[in-house]
Amino acid sequence: MSTILSRLQDYPRSLLYVLALGLILRTLFILVHERPLISDEKEYARLAHSIVSLGSYTDGGTPTAYRPVGYPAFVSLVYGLTGQHPMAVKFLQGLLDALVALMIYHLLSGFPERARLLGAALWAFYPPSFLYTNFLLSESVFTFLLTASVVLLQRSSLTRFVAPLALGALSGLLVLMRPSFLLFLVLLPVVFVKFRVSLRPLGAIAVGTLLVIAPWLARNYLTLGSISLSTNGGINLLIGNNPNTTGAYAISWPPEVLQPARNEIEANQLAFDYAVRYIVSNPGAFFVNGVKKIAHLFESEGGLLVWSFHDNPEDAGIRYAAKYASLPVILIVLVNVPYFGFMVAGIFGFLAFPREKLWWIFAALLTSWLITHFVFFGGGRFHFPLMPFLAIFSARFLSDYGGSLRQLSQTRKIIAAVVIVALLGVWIAEGIIVLNV
How many domains does the chain fold into? Predict the structure, then answer.
């Protein structure tokens, strides 16, 4: 305890106030805005209950790997310590999310103190992060682990075996929450080569990752006969690649695609095969749909707002746009304006940021995100893990916007303008749809 207190005393008091207030606000929001579990939350709760009560990973008594085990295992650990109370999970998520602000402060090491404090404050008081802590969803935990991994990757020399092994373990946890994170790990050697870092630590990272995911792979092979991280990859590919796709999450494929399936393994394989055939046979549609998916990836926080504040967010009889339009304007503004601000300032900040390790790490991360969602499907929920890094670039830009603008070449200014205009087009089109309901 004394060690923790002595380390806290090393931080500026203003930062500690920011962190404390951010945690208090998250905790109060969770207490005040109690809400029932919906959609994926119910499934995560059932899976966690199965782990705690039955010692097995089953849904309705049937072994499953449709959902990767990472987040349900996290929930089950909290359940095991506190009883099966979703509120306890949410309080812990609030703490982890507040700590992301501290990691942002560390990631801005080497920059002026005002930039570091601004970055921490931007996240500490970022409304969408408050809302996500109040869901039994993986977003808050995944974002915390992702930011922690980047801190370790940026600040550690990785010359000793322990640091890369720890980074590998964190990567394994991230993969068990979202298997698509593997694509970032595939791109990671590019960062190492760029900074002439020895490739030897990659072996330790791979070992750490494998040690974490191996038990889950073994369980799936022994239980389901499939060495896979999840059995929903083919389904997710099908969602974004069929004649009826919108680019967002929707069960819109032809019903006969999965009719022959006897279990989730076969359903996943049939979905994968159909989606691949569709992509190969319709390359033009695949490209157009990919653009739609990226647009959905960076859409407004409408989905988050509807899940959080609509009286009946799961009512299939009410269109999503109508649910969105029914919410109080003040809520829509309070949640969306900070998100829009992060995106606009973050784009300028990213383009003006020094081409050091953090820039390249985020470039690799962003590339992996864009590829993943161009191929599968998009949705506003999926941009959340990128937002701490947009907060970093926003803080760097806003703390010295004059100097940052001067650092931008004409080409980069044009790139920034094109991207921002595209984003504005997405947000305006979405607003028109909602207003015309």
Answer: 3
